[in-house]
Write a structure and sequence with these properties.
376 residues; alpha+beta; Beta-Lactamase; Heat Shock Protein 90; 5-stranded antiparallel beta sheet; 5-stranded mixed beta sheet; 41% helix
Length: 376
């Protein structure tokens, strides 16, 4: 049985004009200088709403002044490299309503054998640059709403956890004081008051961790080189680690200067090292590595020889107040589960990432990746 083949679609000028008009987006074409040479009705309406004249109009004219330099850089990149690019911008309409746009810039090439309309130099050269304005206002509003709900949910969980832990501590303090008031001997009273002092110390430590989690004050004057901060930290604490039966191994490689906030990064190191040491109560090896990951980032790894992290705890490891060491109570000196949450928050403020994994040979390994350029 013979198969019927549909005739090829005739892609004439009228077809492309309908395609141009029916795109549903403001679309325009401009020459190498950025001057508009063609636009559809939606693009024309967008430019008219900004009061742009029809004569010698340029794409940058429709953009707010603070985004024009970025657009010029993107446009030059497309002209010189012939690679599509995207620019986020916002444009206010005649009614004052601000619309968020993703402006896509794509190169359009002249057909082989045809001289480019924009004055190109040869066969198949760049003919023009096409700019598509995609309205992403609704998408961004939905994303902001989702983030707000997530923040409120996280805040609610954090507030509940803080209330729970402080309630435990206050109950411990109140009970101890009640006992102390009814004790007949100084020795028994001193023992009860010691438990009260321990509970107050845990409350103070919890408050300090909450402040570190919330503030993350990174002043430019507080920046120091990552290598210097790490070396100084372990130089100060190597004797203490040795006294606890922990042998320190440094695996170093030369890395470029990476600016980090000195005090905050010391908090990061302190929490990670404390966790590693607590995982090795009988002693072990603490391995610290610093190396370049790729052209954009460096990595710091801290690994121990403890039992590792239970797989069921991996997903919640960086949640505030999540701990595998039990709840706070009278007579306990355990952490409240804020250490890794503080680390995660501080590293994120430094535009870095932190991850955890179990080593095949045993023990846990935390890896921090920091960008070479923190401003990116």
């Amino acid at each position: 049985m013979s198969k019927t083949v549909a005739p090829p679609l005739q892609l004439d000028a009228a077809f492309f004009e309908r395609l141009f008009e029916g795109a549903g987006l403001p679309v325009l074409a401009c020459d190498r200088s950025g001057r508009v040479v063609a636009w559809n009705s939606l693009a024309e309406r967008l430019f008219r709403s900004r009061g742009c004249a029809a004569e010698d109009v340029r794409v940058r004219d429709v953009l707010p002044p603070e985004h024009r330099a970025d657009f010029d850089a993107c446009f030059r990149s497309v002209v010189e490299r012939h690679q599509p690019t995207e620019l986020r911008t916002r444009i206010a309409g005649p009614d004052g309503e601000v619309v968020e746009y993703a402006a896509w810039l794509t190169p359009i090439f002249a057909p082989p054998g045809q001289a480019p309309a924009a004055g190109g130099e040869g066969r198949g050269d760049l003919e023009c640059v096409c700019v598509w304005f995609h309205d992403i206002t609704a998408r961004l509003q939905a994303r902001r709403g989702l983030r707000k709900r997530e923040r409120l949910t996280t805040l609610g969980a954090l507030a509940g956890a803080v209330a729970h832990h402080y309630n435990n501590l206050l109950c411990s303090i109140a009970t101890s004081l009640e006992f102390a008031l009814n004790m007949n001997t100084v020795t028994a009273m001193r023992r009860v008051l010691r438990r009260t002092a321990d509970a107050v110390a845990r409350a103070t430590q919890l408050t300090q961790q909450l402040l570190a989690f919330a503030q993350a004050d990174h002043r430019a004057g507080d920046l120091a080189d990552l290598t210097e901060v790490v070396l100084q930290y372990f130089d100060r604490h190597e004797a203490e680690l040795r006294d606890r039966g922990v042998r320190l191994e440094l695996r170093w490689s030369h890395i470029p200067f990476v600016p980090v906030p000195r005090d905050q990064f010391a908090v990061v190191l302190d929490n990670l090292v404390r966790n590693a040491v607590e995982a090795m109560p009988q002693g072990g090896v603490l391995t610290v590595g610093l190396q370049r990951r790729d052209e954009n980032a460096v990595t710091l790894t801290i690994a121990d020889t403890g039992p590792g992290i239970p797989p069921e705890h991996m997903e919640r490891l960086f949640e505030p107040f999540f701990t595998t060491r039990g709840a706070l109570g009278a007579g306990q000196t355990r952490q409240a589960g804020m250490g890794l949450a503080v680390v995660h928050g501080l590293v994120s403020e430094m535009r870095g990432t932190i991850s955890a994994a179990n080593k095949p040979e045993g023990g846990a390994c935390f890896e921090i990746a920091l960008p070479l350029d923190p401003a990116r």
